[in-house]
Amino acid sequence: MKFAGHIASLVAALAFATGICSSAYAQSTDDLKNDEKTPADVLVYGMGYSGQRFSPLTQINKDNVHRLVPVWGHALTDNRGAEAFPLIKDGVVYTTVHNATVAIDALTGKQVWRTPHEYPPETLRVVCCGVVNRGAAIYDGKIIRALMDNHIVALDAKTGKEVWKTKSPDPTTVENGYAMTGAPLVVNGVAIVGVAGAEYSHRGFIEGYDAATGKHLWRSYNIPGKGEPGSETWKGDTNLVGGGSSWVTGTYDPELDLVYWGTGNPSPWNPRTRPGDNLWTNSVVAFRPKTGERVWAFQTTPADPFDYDGVHTPVRATLNVEGQPRKAVIQANRGGFLYVLDAKDGTLLAANAFGKVNWADGVDMKTGRPKWTQVYHDAVAGKNVTVWPSVSGVTNWQHMSFNPGTGLLYINTLHIGMTYEAPEPVAMTPGKPSGPGSVKRTTVLDDPNVRGFLKAVDPMTGKSKWEVPTKSPNWSSTLSTASNLVFTGVMTGEFQAIDADTGKLLWSFQTPSGILGQPVTWERDGKQYVTVMSGIGGVYALRAGDPNLANVPAGASIWTFALFDK
Q1: Going by C-beta distance under 8 Å and a sequence separation of 6 or more, which residues neighbour residue 69?
Q2: Which DSSP state fits 433?
C-alpha cells in the first residue's frame, strides 16, 4: 500500500507538472494575443498583433508631456542603423543591433546581458539598404531573432545563452542574395520570418519555424514556380530571380487565424526583362501561420518598374465602411496609395493617394489595378521621365500608428520625386545586383526645404487632417496614445511628442544620433515610460546626399523617458 501510495503521489506530481507546462505554454501564447491590453509589457512587434502601435496609457498627456525627461540612456556600441523595436517583459528591455542582442534593466538602464553575433565578411555584401536589424520576438522564456546570415537563433531571456540555432534551408545563402533583417512574428508557437534581397536577384519567401526547437516547418515562396498559379505572369526563368522580398514583419488576426504580410518589389528594377504582372510581388498576402498556406493575396503594383516595395506592415483595424463596422487591413503603400482591404477575403474597400503621385491617376475599385498614366507607360518603354514618388516611396518601411479614438493614421511620409530611365535590360543571376544599376535615376525636389511630412490621415479617404513639413524625411515609426499624443523621431536626432489633434509640437529631446527607431510606451509600478532607439543609418541616410544629415554622428543607443516628479 505504501508503494502504491508513492506511485499515486508520483502520478499526481507528474500530472501537476504537465499541467504547469501546458498552462505556461498557453499563458505565453495568450500573453502575445493580449499584448495590446497589457501595457506593463510590450511583447509583440507593433505593440500587439494588430500592429496599431497604439497604447491605452494616459499618464503622459498634452498638459504634462513637457515634463518628460530621460530616465536613462544606454550605449549599444554599434555604428550601423538602430532600427529595432524594443520589447519589455517583467522589467527588462530587450533590443537588437545588427551584431548583438541586449537585455537592459528597464528602470536603471544597466545591462543585464549582451550576446554578440558574428558574421562572415561576405554577409554584409548582400544587405543592400543598410546593415541593420529590426528587432526580436519573445516567447516562452526565449528571445528569438533572425541573423543577417540567414540563421534563426533563440536565446534564454534570463541569461542570453543560446537555446537553439537553425539555418534557413538552401538555397538561402548570401551567395544567392538572401539576408534576414526583420523581426520574427511568433504565432501559436510558430516563429515566422521573411527575407531581404530583391536587389540581389533572389526569389523571395516567408517561412515558419517551431519556436520551441527551431525546427523548420514550412516555406511559402512569394514568386510562383513553374505550373503554379501566377507563374504565367513570369516569362521564361525570370521567376527564379524575381525578387519579392518579405523583410518587414507582418500582423495577425487570432479570430480569422490569418497572418498578413507585405511582399516586395520584383527583380530587376528594370521591367523590360520581366513582362507581366509578376505575381506575387508588391502584394499583401494572408496565410495560415501553422502551414504558410496562402488564403488570399492582393497585388498593389503589377509589373512595378519603380521599386515600389510593398513590404509596409498591414495594420489591422475595425473601420466604418459604408455605415457598417468591418475588419480591415490597411497598408500605406510605397507607391503612394493607401489601401484598405477586407481582412477575411482581401476585397478592396478603399484606395487613395496620400502623397504626390503621377505614375497613376488612381486605383480601379473593381479590378484593384492602378490607372496608369503616360508617365508609367513611357517609363516601361525605356523613356526618360519624371516620376513621383521616388524609389523611396511616399512612405518607406517606417511604421504608421492608428488611434482608434481619433480614427486616424499617423504616418511619416516623403516628398521626393525622381527622373527615371530603364535602358536595355541585361540578364540576371542569383546573388548579383539587380537594383539601382539596372535603371538610371536622379532625385527631384519641389522644395529643397521640404523633403517630407508627418501626416494625420483618414484611412478611408487618404486625406490629411493635418500635415507638418520636415526638412528631411522622418524615418522613424510613430507611436499613438489614448491621451492623443504621437511620438516620433527625426533623423537629426530629436525625439518628439506631437498633439494628435493638431500636429503641434509639444516636446522635443535631442538624442546623440539620428532616430530611425520604433518608439514604444509601457508602465511599471504605476509609472508610464517611453523608450526609443537612436542611431542613424539605413539607405536614405547613406545614399540620399541629404545636406541636413551631413553632421549627424553615428552611434546606436537606447533611451527611456518618464515624467519629472515635481
Answers
A1: 561, 562, 563, 564
A2: -
Tracing cell 490597411 back to the chain, one arrives at 330
Phi, psi of 316 (to 5 degrees): -100, 130
The dihedral over CA atoms of 75, 78, 81, 83, expressed in degrees to the nearest 10, equals -50
307 is known as an active-site residue: yes
Question: Across-strand partners of 558?
Answer: 74, 533
Instruction: Name the nearest CA neighbour of 330 among 338, 322, 523.
Output: 338
Could you tell me the CATH superfamily of domain 34-563? Quinoprotein alcohol dehydrogenase-like superfamily (2.140.10.10)
> CB–CB of 150/196 below 8 Å?
no
Question: Do 194 and 245 meet the contact criterion of CB atoms below 8 Å apart?
Answer: yes
> What pLDDT is stored for residue 176 in this prediction?
87
Distance CA 240, CA 236 (A): 9
CA distance 26 to 242: 40
Q: DSSP 3-state helix, strand, coil percentages of the chain (rounded to 5)? A: 15, 35, 50
Task: Check residue 223 and give its pLDDT.
Answer: 97
What backbone phi and psi angles, to 5 degrees, belong to 8?
-60, -40
Determine which one of 277, 307, 458, 546 is catalytic. 307
Cα 363 to Cα 377: distance, rounded to the nearest angstrom: 16
In the DSSP assignment, the letter for residue 76 is -
State CA 389 to chain mean position distance: 20
What would the pLDDT profile of 94-114 be if each residue is shown by its tens digit?
999 999 999 999 999 999 999
* Nearby residues of 351 by Cβ (< 8 Å), 6 or more positions away: 337, 338, 339, 340, 362, 363, 365, 368
The ranges assigned to domains in the chain are 34-563
CB 251 within 8 A of CB 314: yes
Calculate what percentage of the chain has a pLDDT beyond 70: 95
